[in-house]
Every structure is written in structure tokens, then in C-alpha cells.
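> forwarded from #structure-qc
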């Protein structure tokens, strides 16, 4: 088991010092659960897209810390996820990136912010954010792509490389159960947890908000299993051949790309964003894996807040974020 950083001192469940509203908006007759932190109508809001596909807003609620710095933050659960409408009987072909792009547009319009907003996507959320940005939406001002691959083929290849670094007995359990089709077994889940502790969240045990997202997926894995697969590294779903690499030069807003030193979204995964989006800035968090907003929470908020305030452009280079916690 890898060494874990110190868990964040500020619990996501603590009552925040800013106003929080939770409500539903309609999307094609289905319920979308929305949470706003801070007051809309003043400063430009930051809209947060969670990962998966099939996760929930819970594990990225820490980004609401930015409301304490004057930036209103909007979270929502994507269709089929968390507190939003679940559609377990929907045809597999209905779960597409376009569906979630349309839902994002519906949320922006319902909140009346589609003419002026910033966007932060984490993991799959960053892929979705990039899909949104290449279409040139008029209201988008800044883009943050956090821990996201630009190509699922690269993601799978890099996951295979990381997987080879696992202990032999863990690799054996993964290989045998995948070959047998028994990925629901306890042994397989335990082996998966070893990969996650190294490359998904190095805060162990995972914080409650992260555990809640995992629990939501377990309760209804429809979207995750359909689009991704049984876990982060065995990708057999409809997104397995997805790529946005060739379309990235169309992104026309200041862009920040982040990942972690131990991230499953390795440097190779995020490189196309850095190299192909004009003027993109890249920051790597040295004590983090896939969730620097949890693993190096304060430093992550400092980095994003500074970017939204300044949004520097120029030759893309990797900046290593200065660690603030002991760790691996």
C-alpha cells in the first residue's frame, strides 16, 4: 500500500460560511439536481463538471471553497447520476457525450448564466468540458481541464503501464477475473482498490464525500458501466475509442490543464491539451494522484483562483505545484 497524504482538515460536510442552494432543473422532462455555492448574479460563476461518466458531484464539492474567495460555484449531477434522474432502462446507445453536452447547455440556460461563465471539468468532466469548448460557446471565458485524458486509447495504454507496477498477486487477481468475467468478485474489487489507492486518491481512507460518490456508482452503475467499464483501468464501454486530440486547436479561451504526479491521467494523457490548445498552461501537483482538489486541496484552490483571476497565456510548460502536505 502506498503512503497517503494527510487528509484535508476542512470536512466537506461542515456547514460552509457562504449561501448554498439545492434545487432541480428540467432537462428533457428529467430532473437535474443542482447545487450553487455563493450568490449568482454578481461575479462570474464557475461551473463544475464531475467525472465518471457516472460519478456524482459529491467528490468535487471541495471546489465550492472558491465561493469563499468571491467566485460563485455551480455543481450538478449529470443525468443518470446521484440525485438527478436515473434511467436504468435507457438503451446503451442513448448514453453519449452529446447527451451530456445538451444537459450542460440546459443547466447554463436555466440558471441564466450561459452568456458569462467559467468551466472546470474533472476527469470525464474535463473531457466533456473540452467537447463543450471546441464548439466555441459564446459565454465561456475560462476553461480548467483537471486530470483528464484527451484520448481514451492513451488512457488505457497508460493504465496498463501503471498496472504493471502493481504487486504480482494484485496483477494476477485482475487478469484472472477479467478473463473469467468475474469483475464483481470481492477479490477483484480488493485488487482494484490497490490501484485506486495509488492512482485515484492517495488520501486513505478516502474522505466521506469521495466515498459517497463511489457508493452512488455501486447503487446504480448504469452510466459508468455503459460508457466506461467496471473500473478506471478496464475500459470496455462506449467511450473506449473516444478522442478529442485533433479538435483541440479550436479551443479559444484561456485554459489551465492540471494533473497529479501519481495520476492515472498521466503526463502523456494530458499532453495533447497542453500542446494543442493555444496558450494552455499546465500545472502538476506533486503530492497528488487523480484528485488534487482533495489531496492538495488548498493548493489546488490557490492555483485555480489565480488562473481565473489572471489566465496567463504563452508557451505551454509544466509547472510543478509546491507541495503543502507531507506524503508519498
Amino acid at each position: 500500500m502506498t503512503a497517503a497524504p494527510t487528509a484535508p482538515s476542512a470536512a466537506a460536510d461542515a456547514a460552509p460560511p457562504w449561501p448554498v442552494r439545492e434545487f432541480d432543473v428540467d432537462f428533457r422532462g428529467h430532473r437535474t439536481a443542482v447545487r450553487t455555492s455563493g450568490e449568482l448574479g454578481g461575479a462570474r460563476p464557475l461551473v463544475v463538471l464531475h467525472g465518471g461518466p457516472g460519478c456524482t458531484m459529491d467528490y468535487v464539492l471541495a471546489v465550492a471553497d472558491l465561493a469563499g474567495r468571491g467566485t460563485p460555484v455551480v455543481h450538478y449531477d449529470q443525468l443518470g447520476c446521484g440525485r438527478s434522474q436515473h434511467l436504468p432502462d435507457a438503451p446503451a446507445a442513448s448514453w453519449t457525450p452529446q447527451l451530456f453536452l445538451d444537459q450542460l447547455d440546459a443547466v447554463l440556460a436555466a440558471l441564466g448564466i450561459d452568456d458569462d461563465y467559467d468551466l472546470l471539468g474533472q476527469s470525464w468532466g474535463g473531457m466533456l468540458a473540452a467537447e463543450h469548448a471546441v464548439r466555441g460557446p459564446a459565454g465561456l471565458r475560462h476553461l480548467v481541464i483537471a486530470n483528464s485524458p484527451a484520448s481514451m486509447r492513451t488512457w488505457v495504454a497508460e493504465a496498463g503501464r501503471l498496472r504493471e507496477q502493481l504487486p504480482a498477486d494484485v496483477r494476477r487477481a485482475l487478469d484472472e477475473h477479467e478473463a473469467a468475467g468475474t469483475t464483481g468478485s470481492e477479490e477483484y474489487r480488493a485488487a482494484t482498490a490497490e490501484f485506486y489507492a495509488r492512482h485515484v486518491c492517495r488520501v486513505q481512507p478516502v474522505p466521506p464525500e469521495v466515498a459517497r460518490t463511489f457508493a452512488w456508482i455501486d447503487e446504480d452503475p448504469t452510466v459508468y458501466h455503459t460508457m466506461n467499464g467496471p473500473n478506471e483501468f478496464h475500459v470496455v464501454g462506449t467511450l473506449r475509442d473516444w478522442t478529442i486530440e485533433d479538435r483541440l486547436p479550436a479551443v479559444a479561451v484561456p485554459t489551465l490543464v492540471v494533473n497529479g504526479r501519481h495520476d492515472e491521467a498521466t503526463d502523456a494523457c494530458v499532453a495533447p491539451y497542453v500542446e494543442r490548445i493555444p496558450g494552455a498552461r499546465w500545472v502538476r501537483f506533486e503530492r497528488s494522484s487523480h484528485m488534487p482538489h482533495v489531496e492538495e486541496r488548498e493548493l489546488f484552490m490557490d492555483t485555480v483562483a489565480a488562473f481565473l483571476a489572471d489566465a496567463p497565456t504563452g508557451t505551454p510548460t509544466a509547472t510543478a505545484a509546491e507541495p503543502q502536505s507531507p506524503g508519498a
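QC bot note: Residues 97-111 form the longest helix (15 residues). The radius of gyration is 18 Å.
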